[in-house]
Design goal:
Blueprint: H1 12-31, H2 35-48, E1 52-53, H3 54-60, E2 69-74, E3 78-83, E4 93-99, E5 104-115, E6 118-126, E7 139-146, E8 152-157, H4 184-187, E9 195-198, H5 211-216, H6 225-238, E10 248-254, E11 259-261, E12 267-270, H7 273-287, E13 295-301, H8 318-329, H9 335-343, E14 346-350, E15 353-354, E16 376-379, E17 383-384, H10 395-407, E18 412-414, E19 424-425, H11 429-433, E20 438-443, E21 445-446, E22 454-457, H12 458-474
Parallel strand pairs: 1-2, 4-13, 4-14, 14-20, 15-21, 16-18
Antiparallel strand pairs: 2-3, 3-13, 5-6, 5-10, 6-9, 7-8, 7-10, 11-12, 12-22, 16-20, 17-19
Helix pairs in contact: 1-12, 7-12, 8-9, 10-12
């Protein structure tokens, strides 16, 4: 079944809406490159749309009614939003879910060292990456350093034009004969992904008679002089010591803003589109939807790239706890009602799908692959090999989804994640399916998935937004 390219279906009004949405999306990608930054931006947007913090409402003993909007942040890395519907929550919700973490490099807790005149930060890569893609490109450092007194120091270095950037070095081609014979997984080892952050030794002015200089007079300027120069900069600019790295969360990400791609400007090239493309469009659909019959919900979580583990991953109980608190404020709480609510809910577990790449056609089943520009993608199942680790949506639910999308005039396509037995992957879908609710994977096709720069079609971004709106208004199975 061949699908018509979505671009061919738009009128001028839709094209204008598409461009406005994608401009906002590029700003989101450029300004929210970590989970914490995503949550900060999402909270600002939610509060501007009239959402109130759940914890404050609980403290005040407030009550909730149809049309009320609440959000709950968990450890500054995950967030869930609710808009109360006309029907009781125990009849189920319509849920959009996505993740806001992306592959990157994390700074280790004892990272700073000097070697042969270079100062380095030691890193540990996060998520599934091709390590060789992360060398020789401009990199930025984002995150927080929490001092012993509880003070938070926010770090964002490498994004402004006058900021320095950082990089991981690679061996010059002239000496790389042995390196080039290595397996691609071994060309760059994980322990070699150390960030170069300085090369200039500290300068000690022995003529000045200040305490700092007196303390350093007996030290050789050549003894870890580059490292000490970096520490001086960190102290002067951020008032942090080397030990403060112990309680830091610093992420190394590609430097630079999201860009339009192609002469026709039809695509977006940016870091972190897996899965912020689904997070942004889900959030946007949630904020733009008026009161519906069923309560609607948007979950945006951390740790999907490493198995949805930890307190901020989908496998923790923060979402279930938030549902219980909301139902309590709505006068519906009981353990049984929470279970009924979750079991009767309908969900789109949104994550990116592998886009067909003609340069690697041998890796795809051409009949069952997502094409850039062909609209929102639905995956009946993901997983690997014999669907291992997959949620597998039932036929009745898929038929219901088809009906919703047809009534909303949303352009959709279906896909699998590459050829059988070639690879595979998972999403948060299986976690929510544990509650017994209807869940299907959906999202946007991506080229260069998990690379520092990923590509999407503007048309698919727009169709995902339209599809999410249609779903949260129309799902009721």
């Amino acid at each position: 079944m061949e699908k018509k390219n979505t671009w061919e279906t738009y009128d001028k009004k839709q094209l204008k809406e598409l461009e406005a949405l994608c401009a906002e999306y590029r700003d989101f990608l450029s300004e929210a490159k970590t989970e914490r930054e995503c949550v900060d931006r999402i909270v600002n947007a939610a509060e501007a749309a009239g959402y109130r913090e759940l914890e404050a409402l609980v403290k005040d003993g407030a009550s909730l009614k149809a049309g009320d909007k609440v959000y709950s942040v968990w450890m500054n890395k995950s967030i869930v939003l609710f808009q109360m519907g006309d029907k009781p929550m125990c009849e189920g919700m319509n849920i959009l879910g996505a993740h806001i973490d992306s592959p990157r490099m994390d700074i280790k807790q004892n990272p700073l060292y000097e070697e042969s005149g270079f100062a380095y930060l030691d890193t540990h890569y996060y998520g599934g990456v091709k390590k060789y893609q992360w060398v020789t490109i401009p990199l930025a450092i984002h995150g927080v350093i929490i001092k012993k007194d509880g003070t938070t120091v926010e770090i964002n270095i490498g994004e402004n034009e006058d900021d320095p950037v950082f990089f991981v070095s690679d061996l010059l081609i002239h000496l790389a004969q042995e390196q080039l014979r290595k397996d691609a997984a071994k060309v760059i080892e994980g322990e070699a992904l150390d960030l170069i952050i300085g090369n200039r030794p500290i300068v000690i002015d022995k003529k000045k008679n200040d305490k700092k200089t007196r303390d350093e007079k007996d030290e050789s300027a050549g003894k870890e002089a580059v490292k000490r120069g970096v520490l001086r900069i960190l102290k002067d600019n951020y008032d942090i010591e080397e030990e403060d790295f112990l309680s830091a969360e610093l992420e190394v990400v590609p430097a630079g803003r999201a860009r339009e791609a192609g002469f026709d400007r039809s695509m977006i090239l940016a870091y972190g589109q897996d899965d912020r493309v689904c997070a942004f469009t889900s959030l946007k659909a949630m904020l733009d939807t008026p009161v519906t019959d069923r309560t609607i919900c948007c979950i945006l979580v951390d740790k999907e790239e490493i198995g949805s583990v930890g307190a901020t991953g989908m496998r923790s109980h923060f979402f279930e706890n938030a549902v219980a608190e909301v139902m309590n404020l709505a006068g519906e709480y009981s353990e049984l009602n929470v279970r009924r609510c979750l079991a009767r809910s309908c969900m789109l577990s949104s994550d990116v799908s592998s886009g067909y790449d003609p340069s690697y056609a041998q890796c795809f089943d051409r009949k069952n692959v997502a094409m850039l520009g062909n609209g929102m993608v639905f995956n009946k199942f993901t997983g690997s090999a014999g669907k291992s680790g997959s949620n597998d949506a039932n036929a009745e639910y898929i038929a219901h989804i088809r009906d919703i999308m047809e009534k909303g005039n949303v352009n959709i396509q279906t896909a699998e994640l590459g050829k059988v037995d070639l690879g595979g992957g998972g999403t948060i879908a299986y976690v929510l399916a544990l509650y017994g609710m209807n869940v299907i994977d959906s999202g946007v096709a991506v080229l260069n998935m998990h690379a520092p720069w990923e590509a999407t079609s503007k048309a698919d971004v727009y169709e995902a937004y339209r599809g999410y709106k249609a779903f949260i208004k129309g799902a009721c199975l």
